[in-house]
Amino acid sequence: MSLTVITQRMGAKSYQRIVVGLVLSASLAMLAACSSASRNGASVVDRNGVAQRPAVTTGQYVVKRGDTLFSIAFRYGWDWKALAAKNNINAPYTIVPGQSIRFDGRAGTVPAGGTTTTVVSSSSGSKTTVTKRPVASASRPVTTAPLPAGPAPKGWGWPADGILIGKFSSNGSLNKGIDIAGDLGQPVLAASDGTVVYAGSGLRGYGELVIIKHSDTYVSAYGHNRRLLVREGQQVKVGQKIAEMGSTGTDRVKLHFEIRRQGKPVDPLQFLPRR
Questions:
Q1: Which domains does the chain have, with CATH numbers?
Q2: Taking every annotated instance into account, which residue ranges of this chain make up the domain LysM (predicted)?
Q3: Spatial separation of the C-alpha atoms in residues 221 and 236, rounded to whole Å
Q4: How far apart are CA 272 and CA 154, in angstroms?
Q5: Is the peptide bond before 159 cis (omega within 30 degrees of 0)?
Q6: Contact 118, 98 (CB under 8 A)
Q7: What is the spatial distance between Cα 40 and Cα 170, in angstroms, rounded to a whole number?
Q8: Which of 7, 129, 185, 212 is 20–30 Å from 163 (CA)?
Q9: Contact 99, 120 (CB under 8 A)
């Protein structure tokens, strides 16, 4: 039956109402799909191959094997101290696979008089130690006030030799750091003294990644390595070789380098010596 015949039998107004209804239904379905993708935390990968995740202000994250408090804070753009405070996590900031990390300020608690099991494991899963400790009867109040920023570490050095092929974007949406092109396997160096707080490949878009804590305020990150030469908890000095340059998680051999202050990306060129 032709469209003209259908229109004549139904009446022009009835036909128009049906068409409008179909268009509205399709539009609502598209909006629902977009909303679902947003709620599920869909990542967007930028031109530099680094997954861009929106800053998380509410909700929770379930800890996976290989995660550290620092890697979770880095992934979602949080200051690690603020995230620890929100979840009543004390030094040495150990987290447990399956544990929920809250981002809305409502830290989880354990019933009074109970015990909590702490699982200490490396990213490689080579060794696991289980200990139990008593839990305080009342949790500490959670503070949401911004923590004061400390001074920047002194004596920053370049993390690798090579050509600068990507610069920091001021809004952080295109490039949260800088990119240095080099040769496969060339040394990647610690940019300042500090402690390795993450070494692994669990952060999408960064490949084999090292994160170093330099102070309570500053951390640096080194992505796309071929091989990691340090372990979590290891102390490193500026200029020490921590990895070999590679192309994991990206399309060419390069180092992606970031400096973050209280969880927020800052321009590394403001800290590195001129060359």
A1: 51-134 (3.10.350.10), 163-270 (2.70.70.10)
A2: 59-103
A3: 13
A4: 10
A5: no
A6: no
A7: 27
A8: 212
A9: no
Q: For the chain, how far is it from start to end, CA to CA, in angstroms?
A: 76
Spell out the residues 6+ positions from residue 175 whose beta carbon is closer than 8 angstroms to its own: 46, 47, 48, 50, 166, 167, 168, 169
Query: What Cα–Cα distance (Å) separates residue 212 from each residue in 51, 239, 242?
Result: 20, 13, 10
pLDDT tens per residue, the chain (275 residues)?
554 554 455 555 555 665 555 555 555 454 444 443 333 333 333 444 454 444 444 688 999 998 999 899 999 888 888 999 989 998 889 998 999 999 874 433 333 333 333 333 334 443 333 333 333 333 333 333 444 445 556 689 999 999 999 999 876 567 999 999 999 999 999 999 999 999 999 999 999 999 999 999 999 999 999 999 999 999 999 999 999 999 999 999 999 999 999 999 999 999 999 98
103: enclosing H helix or E strand: none
Give the distance between the most distant pair of CA atoms in the chain: 83
pTM of full prediction above 0.70: no
